[in-house]
Amino acid sequence: MRWPKYVALPVLGLAFVSLLPLLCSAQGSGSVHLKRYAMGTVFEIVVYDDDSTKAEAAAHAALDEAVRLDRMMSNYKADSELSQMNRSAHFQPVRISRELYDIIEQSLSYSRVSGGQFDISVGPLVDLWKAALAGGPIPSADEQTAARGCVGYQQIELLPPDRIQFLSNCMRLDLGSIGKGYAVDRMVELLKARGIRRAYIDAGGSTIYGLGYPKSANAWRVRLRDPSGKLFPQTSLMNSSVSTSEQSAPSPLQGDAPGHIVLPGTGKPLQTRNTVSVTAQSATASDALSTTLLLLGPTKGAALLKTLHGISAIWIDPDGQRLVAGDSAVFHLSGEQQSTRTSQPAKAAVEMSNTRQDSPR
Amino acid sequence: MSKLSLLCALLLSSIAWTPATAKVFFRVTATSLPPSDKTAIDDLVLPWPLRDSSIVARFRNAGYTVWLQCDSKNLASVSDAVDPAAVAGVIVAGATSSNQFAEAEEIRSFMAAHKNLSFRILVSGGKQPQMKGRLVVERDGILQVSSPSTQPWLDTNLAAVRIAHSSSPDSLPIAYDFRWSPSDVPPGAWYPDAEDYALAIAESDAVRSDVIIDLPASLQQALNAEDPQAWSLWKRVMPYLGFSSHAPVAKAEPIANLGVIVDNTKASYEPINLLARHSFAFEALRPANLTLARLQKWNSVVVFSSLNTESFALLQDFATKGGIVVFVNSHDKFPWHSIPPSRQESRTTTYSIGAGQIVELGEPVIEPENFARDLRRLIGRDRSAIALWNSLTTIATAYREEAPAETTLYLVNYADQPDNVQIQVKGRFTRVRFEAPEEHCCVPLPFVERNGFTEFTIPSLRIAARVHLDSDGESSAAQ
């Protein structure tokens, strides 16, 4: 095990944005910054506590939890519980762990509220296009039709308290659109149980949770992905989460390269260059809904958010046009008056605006 | 000039290069160390000028091979001062882009006059090998940008070394070094830790280049003082030193299905770095060295530089026979422009030529990660000499050796967590054997042959491993 890279690290690289300063300053004792590979990405955690031994132990335990859940939910690992379930739940109930049952149950609730746009049974389609994304041929129409026949959350039957059955002989579940959020929530629970009140968890950049707030600020500030590079959007987290979804970038060499996010209804990769960031009280919710709202698009997505409590979202397109749904005060853009609270929505709004005053959308 | 630019400029200068043997040097500042047979270190580097002229003899008596590191401008004074019987060689640092050609000549002259000394040109700009995070921790919070899930970012020296290999083969040998990333550690802890050293050693082995690793003064002193914690750390490093020193040193040819033509590394370094991180089996080549013989070893080529008309003809013929050629930031007029493109988009134009194709990208690589993924897709799995599955923190390199007929695959896992690595190597092999610092040579691995590829799995790759793929002579990889 590597030594923890303590918060006083003078220099850390930031791979994603070279614009941001790379210097970090002394934070004082009792803070620890660790990273761990899990779920195909790097989980990072910063824990603040006056007791550095306690902070370090808690951070390690939280990352261990992410690795453990990866082993459970991975569809890459043949011996994961998910993979075993995917091999055996066709037409006969199989017993699964409470955690796997819980996350599938939560997933199905998002499937229902989104009218099936969020669907963890989309695995066969995702795998089909993932192979193409990795260098395989574009799937044929027949292959796409066959894969679509395997998809449909209605064919997942949960049998309380701990069994599951697939009503399709080719169904396969993929928790990639919710698993990191679920893992982050479990990490937060674990930190709280160990008495940690200030922490920051990043699951590969796509789901971020702020527990409490830093000593010298009233919230964790997070800059949001902005494909236009014009808006510099930010949000502030305090016991809340933000997740960001975006389709794979267009192919520089081949225009028709497939993306990794597939529309369950059509069976084809989503065609959009929008980015959506979603804030919620739980990372499970923000993770699941970021994918869902990207698939739904701004108009239908905003309508969905009117039915949900405590969820806000911002869609940004490459031209800098944006749409905010939910609590507009959650997001602040460069030059606008800042707001730092997500827990008490100032107003429910669906707002369309454009930074270029001369070219409204 | 940035360190990277300096590295790139130097590597692509007229300074030629001789294949190195993944020798691990440790740069020390202390005046003594425990004996070599106790530390498992062979080669020490001492900065010039020496504070104590007796230090060389002291280290030699302790069993070490001693090298001196000096700035190029001090080369003459070093040669006058050192006893060739006591010093094995000289590491020459501080070359600059402005006088690199003159310095190369000076160093060659110096080498000719001192045949009993070995030399390495130290290229700066190396990176501490590591899996990096994204967070920047500040006094009042975290600097962070949300994004779609990103793959782990690996800092590796593979690209820089491959670019170094693009120079002519009769040249001065190089070594790279790096600085340990500054870090705050808990009281009583050592930094770098054993895994940091192990990764640096393993990477040097995999990229087949000499590396100079700084041994912090505090650790040197603690080893001298028989500090149990220091020795506990170092005993975890020693298996990697032993593993590295047993690497095959015979002249080995990198296995590559992709050729990368490059002369301006400042513009093309990062795309090449991403090719390395995605375990493309590639070689880098300067434009002047592009020949039919080199092309016959590859099935795909990426061109980052301007070429002459003879090279156009070679590449057109290469494509006609089924090869894939990608020109990056290309605005030249090519012979194949006389035929209509098979595909034209805002940034790319594709020509189907014979059994192959030529793709012209009309702009620099904006997003190297996307470029690497897209290139993988364009080349296709059946043309890739090496492919890894589900191993985003591991890089692989492979080399073919003639006697005995063997392909050796080097694997380095940057995550410091055991990884289940699934590997596909083009070619048919009669035996697959695995070794690692934790597994003495060699553990037979079960493998399957599928469509001309050999597939096998390493159940738990920690930091370093080698896989020996024995051939009966009738099959080979990457052809």
List the main descriptive attributes of the protein structure presented here.
A: 361 residues; T-fold; 3 domains; ten-stranded antiparallel sheet; three-stranded antiparallel sheet; 7 helices; 29% helix; disordered C terminus; B: 479 residues; alpha/beta; 27% helix
How would you characterize the overall build of this protein?
The complex is a heterodimer of chains A (361) and B (479). Chain A contains seven helices and 16 strands. With 361 residues, chain A is of the alpha+beta class. The N and C termini of chain A lie far apart (52 Å). Mean pLDDT of chain B is 86; it is low at 1-20 and 474-479. Helix content of chain B is 27%, strand content 29%. Chain B folds into three domains: 3-245, TIM Barrel (Alpha-Beta Barrel), CATH 3.20.20; 256-383, Rossmann fold, CATH 3.40.50.880; 385-470, Immunoglobulin-like (Sandwich). Chain B contains 13 helices and 28 strands. Chain B is α/β, with parallel strands linked by helices and 479 residues long. Chain B starts with a helix and ends in a 9-residue tail after the last strand. The interface between A and B is large, with 77 and 67 residues.
